[in-house]
Every structure is written in structure tokens, then in C-alpha cells.
Design goal:
By secondary structure, the chain is an alpha/beta fold. It is built from six helices and five strands.
């Protein structure tokens, strides 16, 4: 199996250098700090391991890729909330932060992972529905205003 690690622009330089050093021992491993269109890699991937940011998760879902989410939980819980929701729907596996280690990643990668059946379950055309949602909200009852809070 070949792999690409997309580190991202905020990874500390010392950690990036360590990752590159480790990856250099494997000719099938590549570490990139930035790639303008990461969907290119995801489209061709057999499996995806990610932290679970909104854009990355949506792309993996749209390509129906088996994914393992190892979310960051500080400074916000947003990635964990997304990972738990996707796991509950059977669309992703979740690796708790305290369980994150090379062995756990290797175990997940070595298992057969079915492609998640996403289309028909998640609407990727939210923008087209937004106008109708606003119209329903605007034509509905006006919430009572108390103490300056609607």
C-alpha cells in the first residue's frame, strides 16, 4: 500500500521534519506540507485517515471512501462531534485521541473496509435547499421577543 500524508500548513516544523524523516525509510510513503487540491489524492485513495475537519470529511463522504477519523479535541470539540455523528450513521470509524498510535492506524488499514453508502443518505446540495429553508422560516410564526433574545 502506498500512502500520502498531507500535513497541512499549521503542523509544527519540527514535527513535519520528523514525519519526513520517518517516511523517507519507505519508498511508498510521501509527506506533503501543502497541496492546492487535496481532493485529487482522496479521489484515488482506497482509504482515508483524517482528523475530521468539515471540508475533508465532506470530500471523503462525496467520494464514498472508507474513513477513519482521529479527531482533534482541543481547542474545540467540533471534529469529535462530527466523527461521532458519522460513526453513528455507519459512515466512518472513530479513533479516540487516547487510542491514537501507529499500531491502531496499521490495524485499521489492514482490515477490509466496505465503501460507505453515502449518496441518498446525505444531501450534498445544501445550498440549493437553503432558499426554501429561509422562505419557510420567514413565512412561519414570528418568535416572541423577551429580554432582548429572540
Amino acid at each position: 500500500m502506498a500512502g500520502v500524508i498531507l500535513a497541512g500548513p499549521y503542523m509544527p516544523k519540527d514535527f513535519l521534519l520528523r514525519l519526513r524523516r520517518l517516511a523517507s525509510a519507505n519508498a511508498r510513503m510521501q509527506v506533503l506540507e501543502f497541496f492546492a487540491e487535496p481532493a485529487h489524492f482522496m479521489r484515488g485513495a482506497a482509504k482515508v485517515i483524517m482528523m475530521g475537519g468539515y471540508n475533508s470529511a465532506c470530500e471523503a463522504l462525496s467520494f464514498e471512501k472508507p474513513m477513519l477519523i482521529a479527531p482533534r479535541v482541543k481547542p474545540r470539540q467540533e471534529q469529535m462531534i462530527r466523527a461521532q455523528a458519522l460513526r453513528a450513521m455507519g459512515l466512518a470509524d472513530l479513533l479516540w485521541p487516547e487510542q491514537l498510535c501507529p499500531d491502531a492506524l496499521s490495524r485499521w488499514l489492514s482490515q477490509d473496509q466496505p465503501r460507505p453508502e453515502v449518496h441518498g443518505r446525505i444531501d450534498f446540495n445544501g445550498l440549493s435547499v437553503l432558499t426554501a429553508m429561509f422562505e419557510r422560516r420567514a413565512s412561519g410564526p414570528t418568535p416572541e421577543v423577551r429580554s432582548g433574545v429572540a
